[in-house]
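Pasting two entries for a bug report.
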Amino acid sequence: MKLKLVFLFFAVISTLQFTGCGNKDTPKETKSVKPTEEERDVNNIAARPELAQRLKIGLPTWLDLADRIQVPSRVQVDEERTAQIGSYVTGRIINMFVVLGDYVKPGQALARITSPDLTQSQLAYLRAASRVTVTQKASDRARHLLAADAIPVAEVERRQSELEIAKAEFGAAKDQLILFGMTDSELKQINKTGKILPWLDIKANREGYIIERNVMVGKVVQPADPLFQVADLSHVWVVGDVPEQIARDVQLKQHVEIIVPALAGMPPLDGVIIFVSDTVNRLTRTVMTRVLVKNPERKLKPDMLANMHITDPQHKSLVVPESAIVRELNKDYIFIVVGDNRFQRVPVELGDETDGFRPVLKGLTADQKIVLEGAFHLDSERKLAELE
């Protein structure tokens, strides 16, 4: 009886082990089923008939496009219409006649200065004028005496030489005062009265606005100090640094558009390129470009930020409409036709938008049919199919 029970126990254990092994083999057979190629391709989509009817199919087109290069720029004064004004003599400012923003004309007094150098130069001028008068009379007297045979010719020549030296000294003294800024009327006043002017006016040498003033009453100034900057702001420069890769497309006398963010709502201004540097900045790898812009209302202020839009000559480009593009994870995609109501989403590289079109740089050829309109709805359908 015991032997029968032992045999029955081993029979049950063997049956259970065989059953367990069979259960383990079944999942392995399930895992071995692989998805098809179409099921793995998340970029392939079969459009429903009602959606396919709403899609517009066509080919990319060729258009004449002109690239627009945007260059960060800044407004500067036109240096051809600007002047730095200072004093020609070391001295102290005793009076001011203008403030920032004043409009001045050539010859208008800007400030008044007194100077020991000015006093010494006026004294030298008066001495030279007096010496010319004395030597002139001595020379005339000598000629009369020579005519009366009272003096030798050598004495006449000596006095004539002294007169010429005196005239040269007078001319040098006069030129010195003119360099200091004295006018002919002021020199005549000194000659007439024989009195020294205690001061001198610093005058404007061109017409324009005072855009800089670096002086005040009581300040001692040197000839090298820039005291005033006068600028004609009817024209200004817009200066930008063009990357060296596109500098070859920038030409003199080329018209460009200038947009100033600070003047929002103002239409783009027209400018003309007047200078393109012959050298490249080694640090920024850019070429400095200067544009002349009219500024009759003085809305453009020096140091304003601007954007320079340079338009290249037109050229043929393969383009697609904006409605054909879908974007995901900062990448652009287009749907191409691969069969009846079947489409494949492919990545493409596109240029900047121009008049509702994007030039194709890479990823598409002119003979490939694509979805021109309805790409957004087709991409939504693809995403839903991917979730399922």
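Entry 2 (this is the one that rendered wrong in the viewer):
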Amino acid sequence: MKVSIFKRAYALIDSIIAKYLMRNVWVLTGAIFLVISLVIFGNQVASMINESLKYGISATDLLPLISFNMIRDIPLMLSLSLFLAIILAISKFYKNSEAIVMNSLGVGDKHFMVFIQPVVLSIFIFVLFLTTIAVPWTKQERDVILNRSDNASEFSFVKQKEFQKFKNGNIVFYTSKVEDSGSDAQQKMESVFIYTLVNGEPIITLAKQAKKYIDPVTNSVYLRLQNGKRYHGFLTDVNKRILDFDLYDLQIVDGEAVQPNINFTGEESQGMLDLFHSNNPKDMAEFQWRLSQPLSIFILSFLGVLLGKAPSRGGKNLGVLFGVIIFILYNNVLLIAKSSLEHGETSALVGLWWVHLLMLIFILLLYAYRHQKLLTTARFFVK
């Protein structure tokens, strides 16, 4: 009877500690992820805006590109956030002497590793979904947008009060004012100057107003010029011709030139089944890389518990510092192993798995060192 009561009491204590620990890990993970997101995503937004200004990426494509880049980076950011959250949560227990009380009740590192697994499993499943399904899809969509931007008209982004050269200098364009209509395909301009070279003959076109539009049938890009003149030849030429017009459509790009030509054969855009059945080293490396990111979450969760157990004498944030260093080394070695597999320098059987195995050995050695007995490592699997 007494044994049964004690078992129930210990089970209740374990449940309370587990919920308390999981709540701390969830909160810290969210806080750390938010901070990292603000820094990384803020830089990405600024970088994408600069690229849009430089390469003429339309405003409608800018937000999807930023979103795709964010989705691509979420797995790594979540992995780091959870890892640091575990270290900080365990470290907080020891700093507040809560862990000492827990240890006296028989709750130690092994229990902490088990208690946090619901959190780890949830993030593992989410990251696995991202790396195997969401990220490859975003890379496909990103390629479509970038291909469309590359094949779109060079006039897709026009700056006012600035001479711009297109088509290797065969076209010089100037406008005094560009009205933002909210659509890149409906830009309106005033006081337009266009210099073109056709079959060796210079043609200068002046127009009071112009509007860019795309033919929905042929997908060709036009400038609709209003109230202007066309000068064939220079003004000093004897055979010069001057034509007045009220409305003139000048084709900028033929519709066939802006048709996307995307072939999703790159390993980053392929599905998991295609990668699994492929014998291409790059495909095998991509397959193992997608699985390595969520797998590293489990491995780092065990290490986070050990690093969070701060020594009685030492810096308060040594665990976090060591954690960041190990995280960087871990991911860099994975990238090196991925590159080695891509170039056929290692077999698929070795692939990236040796890096995870090496990390597990390091965790076991650290666990044995922290408990001062190598036999403890053996008991870890027996109990």
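Dev reply: Rendering is fixed now. As a check, the viewer should reflect this: The beta strands are 164-166, 171-179, 188-198, 201-214, 221-232, 241-253.
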